[in-house]
Design brief:
By secondary structure, this protein is mostly helical. The chain is built from 2 helices and no strands. Helix 1 packs antiparallel against helix 2. The chain is elongated.
Length: 62
């Protein structure tokens, strides 16, 4: 289960106790977490490309 799936599960679990303001705050936090995960994935993908990014870890790509 991913972080997003886990957060969605808890949002659904608490939905009956949450006020509309709580729901909006939870949605905003979930959106922030998803944006961060997408940015992290993009950065890690760049570091894994052959010939690019390896110098970040002290390896000469040539």
């Amino acid at each position: 289960m991913t972080i997003t799936e886990l957060e969605t599960f808890y949002l659904r679990l608490d939905a009956m106790r949450m006020t509309p303001a709580d729901r909006e705050l939870a949605k905003a936090r979930l959106d922030q977490a998803e944006a961060f995960a997408a940015a992290l994935h993009a950065a890690l993908s760049w570091l894994r490309r052959p010939g690019e990014g390896q110098h970040v870890f002290g390896h000469d790509p040539l």
